[in-house]
Amino acid sequence: MARPKTPTNILRLRGAEKKNKARMAAREHEPKPAKGIAKPPAWLSRRGRKIFRELAQITTAMDVLTVADHPALAILSDAYDGYFVVSEAITEHGMTYTIINRDGNELVKANPAVAMKSDAWRRIQSGLSKFGLDPSSRAGLVVNHPESDNPFDVEPLPKMKPGERKLIPGTRILAPID
Q1: pLDDT of residue 177
Q2: 20 shares its domain with 95
Q3: I need a surface site. Which of 137, 144, 160, 178 has the fewest CB within 10 A?
């Protein structure tokens, strides 16, 4: 099976316009959906909607998100939410369970949620890759953000010893302890 075509905006971020002008000229007449994203769909869970908004903010800042990506981002957010749901089930019920067979012997079986978690992770990896949100798919991107217009351009955190940081409430960011 042939590899899927790389989106034009991703090629531009990789600098393909300079490398292969004929390739980019051939894509001149493809559809150009508007930038940005709509609100999360109502069918997503509360956590799914939060994930949707976080991913939309990140991918909009990366200049890879358009309104045509709404369904794909919603499905990615749903898979991400499903991953958390089955992770919680595994935490509550364990990775295995025990049954007694007809002969009276105990058998240890894998919790079905473990396979569901693995499947959700594969779907998440695929979706993240399509939006350039994993290290390998992002490795070839060349993004030029003007320093003054980039809200995500922040000073790096100072070097810290283990234990000298705390989680900023409501985020997944570690910051130094003052």
Answers
A1: 55
A2: no
A3: 178
pTM (2 decimals)? 0.64
Q: What is the pLDDT of residue 29?
A: 73
Residue 76 has pLDDT above 70, yes or no: yes
71: closest CA among 46, 49, 40, 30? 40
Average pLDDT over residues 132-160: 61
- DSSP string computed for 30-82: S--PPBS--PPPTTS-HHHHHHHHHHHHHHHHTT--BGGGHHHHHHHHHHHHH
Nearest C-alpha neighbor of 87 from the set 114, 49, 124, 51: 114
| pLDDT tens, residue by residue, 147-166 | 555 555 555 555 555 555 55
Domain that holds residue 133: 34-140
Specify the number of domains making up the chain.
2
Phi-psi region of 74 (alpha: psi -120 to 50; beta: other; left: phi over 0): alpha
Same domain flag for 27 and 38: no
Nearest to 109 by CA among 92, 94, 97, 95: 97
Sign of CA dihedral 126, 130, 131, 137: positive
Which pair of tokens denotes residue 21?
A: 């002008």
